[in-house]
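Example is below:
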Amino acid sequence: MPRVDPIGNFNFLVEIDGVVQASFSECSGVESTVEIMEYREGGHNSTVRKLPGRTSYSDISLKWGLTDSMELWQWHKKAIDGAVERKNGSIVVFDLANAQELARWNFVAAWPTKWEGPGLNASASEVSVETLTLTHEGVERVL
């Protein structure tokens, strides 16, 4: 049986309907949780049955180096102004040669709930980083 190595976490891109962002340096929060519903069944007093309940999804956090692009800020500004624009998207992990998709998660009906500007420091030499938090209504691994 051939050895299967784990996939690296550094070669990825995020696709969002209609958003052309050069690249993201970090993507986190791809998570789902199924609520546990406890049920006491008559005649079985020593145990509690555990049934699946509603599924909830964590917010996705995207970080990228500050550029002159205003596209993600403008999407967030629409939500601030009460005109929420929902978009679908994907998080895609590639092999080292960027030739083949190794994993893909699709998320649906996402909209930005939080934007965080860069921390600025005149004595530092790091890249300025913006953060956008997306809430959504579901995520599914398709590859």
